[in-house]
Design goal:
Elements: E1 6-9, E2 16-18, H1 22-33, H2 39-56, H3 63-79, H4 83-88, H5 91-101, E3 104-106, H6 110-119, E4 123-128, H7 134-140, E5 149-152, H8 153-156, H9 164-173, E6 180-184, H10 187-196, E7 200-204, E8 220-221
Parallel strand pairs: 1-4, 1-6, 4-5, 6-7, 7-8
Antiparallel strand pairs: 2-3
Helix pairs in contact: 1-2, 1-5, 2-3, 3-5
The protein binds magnesium ion (MG).
Length: about 240
């Protein structure tokens, strides 16, 4: 068994969570346009937008394409909001409101865990299904300074579980895949993708609930505090 020298982390659902965006949008539409919507109406529109984003996030690979992707996401959100919004608010007006409502934050255990891994001398990289704004989001969340590299799938042009994003991180860390452990929350993307390039993985289940079962032999954790001596292979 190789000594663990590096860790890869998925971002959304592993390091970062989204603050519920609907209340902010409800508030801004009320204050800015005097349009009163229920939280449920706005949540439905955000669900449609999130689904569109997941299918199209690779299309935000530089500043111009990201701006275009964000405008299309705003359009999907608006198309799924009630008629009062569609009649009175155009996508260009809605976009800044939409972007302000998307606020990511690190889970409570993340900063301490990354600091601990860094002090232990491990190489750390984020590998995420995200557009090219990934590094900026990690920076705002205080995580960018705690990891060595951040690789978005949009920057490599292939989504998980394709090997590209993992291979880029392996090259950047300069480590043997056998000495790397990947931690992610989605078995079919994180575990399958890491396994395909020879990286061992751990499934993190933030809600602690029963979810899809990973392959036998893939440990399941609920917090990064559990990534310790039994999961990290020591030298020798
Ligand atoms: Mg995830």
């Amino acid at each position: 068994m190789s000594t663990t020298k590096g860790l890869l982390f998925d971002a959304f659902g592993t390091l970062l969570e989204l603050e519920p965006p609907a209340p902010a949008l409800v508030r801004e539409l009320r204050d800015g346009w005097n349009i009163e919507l229920s939280r449920a109406e706005v949540e439905r529109a955000f669900a449609a937008e999130a689904s569109y984003y997941r299918a199209h996030h690779l299309e935000g690979y530089d500043a111009a394409s990201l701006a275009d992707l964000r405008l299309r996401c705003t359009g999907v959100l608006r198309d799924n909001l009630p008629e009062a919004v569609r009649e009175r608010v155009d996508p260009a007006q809605l976009m800044p409101v939409f972007l302000r409502s998307l606020r990511f934050r690190p889970y409570g255990d993340v900063t301490a865990a990354l600091t601990r891994f860094r002090s232990a001398g491990l190489g750390l990289a984020v590998v995420s299904d995200w557009d090219v704004s990934l590094e900026g989001v990690l920076d705002v969340c205080g995580i960018a300074r705690l990891v060595d590299h951040a690789v978005s799938t949009a920057s490599v042009g292939a989504a998980k579980p394709s090997p590209e994003v993992f291979e880029r991180a392996i090259r950047l860390l300069g480590l043997d895949p056998a000495s790397i452990l990947h931690i992610g929350d989605t078995p079919e993307l994180d575990i399958a993708g890491a396994t395909a390039v020879g990286i061992a993985s751990v499934l993190i289940r933030r809600d602690g609930g029963p979810g899809p079962k990973p392959d036998p032999g893939v440990p399941t954790i609920t917090t990064l505090a559990e990534v310790n001596g039994t999961l990290l292979k020591p030298p020798g």
